[in-house]
Design brief:
The longest helix has 25 residues. The chain has two helices and 20 strands. Among the domains are: 155 residues, Jelly Rolls; 131 residues, Jelly Rolls, CATH 2.60.120. Helix content is 9%, strand content 23%. With 564 residues, the chain is mainly β. The chain has a five-stranded antiparallel β-sheet, covered by helices on one side. It has a five-stranded antiparallel β-sheet with strand order 3-4-9-6-7, with no helix packed on it.
Amino acid sequence: MLRGFFIIAIQLAVIQVYSAQTDSEACNSCCTARVHGIPGNHGNPGIPGSQGVNGENGIRGEKGEQGMKGEQGMKGDNGRNGLDGVPGKLGPTGPQGHSGKQGPTGHQGLIGQPGKSGKSGEIGVPGAIGQKGEKGEQANLTSQHKSAFTAVFKSPPSRHPISPMKYETIITNVGNHYNKNTGKFVCEIPGVYVFQVTSRSSSSSNGFITHIIKNGDVQVTTGVMDSYSSSSTMVILDLVSDDQVWTQPYSSSYNYYSSNSDGYCLFSVVTYHERFKTFFLLVIQLAFIQVYSAQTDSEACNSCCTAGVPGIPGNHGNPGVSGVNGEKGIRGEKGEVGMNGERGINGEQGIKGEQGINGQQGIKGEQGEKGDNGLDGIPGKLGPKGPQGIIGQQGATGPQGLSGQPGEVGGPGVPGAIGQKGEKGDQANLTSQYKSAFTAVFRSNPARHPISPMKYDTIITNVGNHYNKNTGKFVCEFPGVYVFQVTSRASSSSNGFITHIMKNGDIQVTTRMNDAYSSSSTMVILDLVSDDQVWTQPNSLSYNHYFSNSNGYCSFSGFLLYAA
């Protein structure tokens, strides 16, 4: 504040002097000149002004000259001697040890063991034939797992919805594995099963197309495009627990069914993993053929009668167990064999060389002036152990032991006693039976199939691998009686198809269909031996118009009914 006061006073003084000069110039005529007095003393310095803005940096000076090199320092003290060096490499292998001394002569051997046994006595007189064994127990078929059913429509299913077909009447349901409320068979016993479906069309010319489905996937299919006609198909499936199988229409355009109290539409299954159950299948198959034949004949001529189904041959009885063989004659006693002499003692082993001491590892020295060389390290380890000395010569063999007394020749054996009563026969083991079953289908269209074995491109089941899809032939491995079935479907041609089941080049049975997009099937039972071949084949180039797709309209199946 004081500084500002002085500045104001100086400014007022300047203004006063300037004003006085102006007045004197304006009126020099009327006023006399004034005499200036002696100048006063200089006033005190004004208060310093505020600090000005920093000036710009000056130009950098040139680099000074390098200083002179200082004098060399005094030599440092010598470093301490390094520690002992690392041990040297292993020395060379030591010389071979000296051969051991010859062992002393062995002691005389003990008396040898008894000599070789004497010759066996003559074979005794055969014992009398044992009594006939009791008849083996009958196979306990009641203890085997069972699963079989047949369900039919006794009322018209008409235009069945596209869902599992719920056959309302159950004829057989062994095991209760078919549920008529859902229309599904649910597997409870893992194994191989044979399924068959038969359907009949209504008055509509569209007819029907019926699938057999496993867990949602179409396995095989059958259908007809004619009114009041029946068709069937069969498939063999290898199932595990909780697998589900049912039948279902293809679409709402091909779901025209008819049935009544005669049971035209039906669905059946039987297990294959036990022999006796295949007889159910045989009965069912023969019944199907008979029912279809009777239905066709009755429509053509109500006055005609059909023959009954032949009865199935019964099983062969189990053979009785053979009597036990008589006992053999008593064998002569063995003579004593002389004992072997003791073996000579081995020579002593060569002495093992001593092992060298390991040298200590030197500690890293401090850095500085290079120290004097360290002392030589401790000599390295001795070389590895030399090879074992040669084994001393074997001691002399002791004197031979005395020979044993030769055994006496056995006399004639005593005649065998009468055989004991035979034991009961073992229970039949049906699980160990031979197995052979297959189903193969066309998942692609065979169209105009050549006149040669039909090579079905997709195998659904092949127990035993006896069907070869590369040749289209089933080759018998287990001799026995087999069941074969074929289902074919015609294309749009009015000529349709004629399909044979062949055995070793000879026609066995035939099925035919002249209606477009309609199916037909047939079955045969054949007695085969090893290497017999069975296949299906078109009749001629005039009747080879087939149709199939992913639904499997054309199929071929077979299985072993019972082994020879």
